[in-house]
Structures are given as C-alpha cells and as structure tokens.
Amino acid sequence: DVECGDRWVNDFGCVACHSFDGTVIVGPSWQGLFGETVTFTDGTTTVADAAYITNSIVNPNEHIVAGFQPDVMPQTFGEQLSEEQLMQIAAFIESLGE
User: Fold this and answer.
1) Which of 22, 40, 55, 62 lies in disulfide reach of 31, CB 3.0 to 4.6 Å?
2) Can you give the C-alpha Rg of the chain in angstroms?
3) What is the mean pLDDT of residues 32-61?
C-alpha cells in the first residue's frame, strides 16, 4: 500500500504542493502528520487519521488547515481516485511519520 501511495502522490502531482520533509510549500507538509492534531482556520481541531486524510483529498475545502488558503487544492480528486487509491495515499502519509 505504501509503495502504491507513493506512486499516486507523484502521478497526481501532490508533491508540487505537499512536502515529505517538513518544508511548507503551498499546502501542509505530510511529515509526521498522521496521528497529529490538526487545527483549522475556524479554530476546531481533529486528529489526522486515514478518514481525515482521505476526506481532505476528496473534499479539500471542507476543513482548511490554519495558515493555508481555500480553493488551492484541485476539487476533482474524488472523481479521479478510487477508494483503494485514497487508502494507499493515506498509508503512504502514515509512513512518513515512522
């Protein structure tokens, strides 16, 4: 799953906006994200688990991480990625905290 997720984030261009090393590009870095508490622009929080990650890909404007802007991430990944691909991406992001 991790290897497939790595392939998908490269094939779909996620790496243009999300880093794996803590560097902030256009979107939040994925390094150490999985299992951490994420704060949104409205002050609410959640734990970054597989459900949060996949929902953020499919519905990127539903919860905007504090410090970032809405309408930057493409809104079409829900149509482009299968449930299996989404879970593989989440597994890849989880592996970045190891």
Assistant:
1) 22
2) 12
3) 97
Question: Residue-wise over 30-62: b if at least 16 C-beta within 10 A, else e?
Answer: beebbeeebeeeeeeeeebeeebbbbbbbebee
pTM score of the predicted model:
0.92
Q: Which residues contact 37 (CB under 8 A, 6 or more apart)?
A: 45, 46, 47, 48
Both structure tokens of 23? 């560097």
Q: How far apart are CA 27 and CA 25, in angstroms?
A: 6
The CA–CA distances, whole Å, from 70 to 24, 58, 62, 67, 94 equal 16, 14, 9, 10, 24
